[in-house]
C-alpha cells in the first residue's frame, strides 16, 4: 500500500524535537533517539540543531536539510515526572516547533513515569494513536503489547508523541503512524491557530 500525501500538506516543513527519557542512556547509547532522527531525515525532514541541551532556537543553523521535517533539538532527560513536564513546558513555548517525539518510560515499571507526566499536560488527546500502536504492536509481539502506554496529543499547539524506548517500537510507530500523518496533523493544528 502506497500512502499519498494529504493535499493540504505540499511543501510543508514540520519542525520536531526529539526527547529521550532514560536514567541510563547517553547520546552514544541512545539507539531509539538516534533512530527517530534518522527516520525523520529519511522522510525528507531537516535537522536544525542537536545536542543534549534544552531547546534554544534563536539563530540556529540547520545541520542537515532535507526539506520536509526539521529536528530543532535532541535531548536526553531522566525519567522524573518534574523533568519531563519541565521539558514539555519549555518546548511548548517555542513558536518554531510543531511536534515533540518522546521515547522511553512508557511501560509499567516503577520508574516508567513518562505517560503519567505527559498525559496530565495534554490539552487534547489522540486516543487513536495509542490504540493503533498497541494493535500494530500486538501483530508483532503478541499480548505483551498490553504493557505499552504510548500516547499522543496536543499541548500549546504542539503535537506530543510518547513512544516506548525499544528501537523496534520506535520504528513501528514512526513508519506506520507518525511519519505518514505528521504533516496532515500539523496542517490541521495550523488551521486552528491562524
UniProtKB/TrEMBL annotation:
The keyword Protein biosynthesis does not apply. CDD domains: MogA_MoaB. SMART domains: MoCF_biosynth (SM00852). Keywords: Molybdenum cofactor biosynthesis. Residues 17-185 form the MoaB/Mog domain. The keyword Magnesium does not apply. Pathway: Cofactor biosynthesis; molybdopterin biosynthesis. One of its GO terms (cellular component) is cytosol. PROSITE patterns: MOCF_BIOSYNTHESIS_1. InterPro entries: MoaB, MoaB/Mog-like_dom_sf, MoaB/Mog_dom, MoCF_biosynth_CS. It comes from the Bacteria. GO terms for biological process: Mo-molybdopterin cofactor biosynthetic process. SUPFAM superfamilies: Molybdenum cofactor biosynthesis proteins. Belongs to the MoaB/Mog family. This is Molybdenum cofactor biosynthesis protein B. It comes from Cylindrospermum stagnale PCC 7417. The lineage of its organism: Bacteria, Bacillati, Cyanobacteriota, Cyanophyceae, Nostocales.
